[in-house]
Amino acid sequence: MTQRNRVGALPTVKSKADLVYDNLHEAIVGGDLRPGERINMDELARTFGISKIPIREAVKRLESDGLVVSRVHSGVIVSEIDLHEMRGVFLAREAIEGLVGRLAAEKSNDTLVAELEGVQAKMSEALEAGEVGALMSLNSEFHGTLAASSGYRILSELTEQLLVAVRRYRIVAPVDDMNWRSVLTEHQTIIDAVRRQDPEAAATAARAHTKSQADHETAPHRDAAEA
After folding, report:
1. Cα distances (angstroms) measured from residue 226 to each of 32, 83, 91, 218, 220
2. Sheet strand arrangement including 68-71
3. % pLDDT > 70, the chain
4. 3-state class of 151 per DSSP?
5. Contact between 14 and 22 (Cβ < 8 Å)
6. What is the mean pLDDT of residues 84-96?
7. What is the pTM (predicted TM-score) of this model?
8. Cα 78 from Cα 71, distance rounded (Å)
9. Three-state DSSP class for 152?
10. DSSP 39-96
11. Is the pLDDT of residue 223 over 60?
């Protein structure tokens, strides 16, 4: 499948650079553009029907996000996945998710709990249907909802940034059905603590959830598997 088929047509809102950025960002995070794959600037310009200037602007933003790298002889390449760095991502998530869980429980209300339960129900349906892509998106929505409830934009932004890294990693190291079921169970523990307005329990459940996933997904044996 070519980049032309994967990135789609541009809508007529936002700047051209923003639209190119959004399309490429989704293609990278969604796995249509794989780690190590070269991004053809000429083909993108033809696909979008625009000059290379907004393409370059979008690529610079993606580079600052750590999603692409520019190499002298190879051009623009989708960033590779580094298992060691992923362990760092999960460590950062453990700290931030614990704080987010605590704040969510402190500010808990019926609306928040209903939103979390709604995402949880959709995740359960997606799991039974084998819709892995939907599961990853809904998982990001679950944690994004918790982060937004904290009332701090920086926590939402950091959560989103870390979840992008996790989603990319799960494309090359997929989560199996059994682990997705564990995710749902761990999410429910967080929801129950938020519903009870128990900050300590919510923080503990959120940290335990992230650590559990880190132990499963970045275990030492993965180094050998990816070597």
Report:
1. 20, 9, 21, 11, 11
2. 38-39, 75-78, 68-71
3. 91
4. coil
5. yes
6. 94
7. 0.79
8. 11
9. coil
10. E-HHHHHHHHTS-HHHHHHHHHHHHHTTSEEEETTTEEEEPPP-HHHHHHHHHHHHHH
11. no
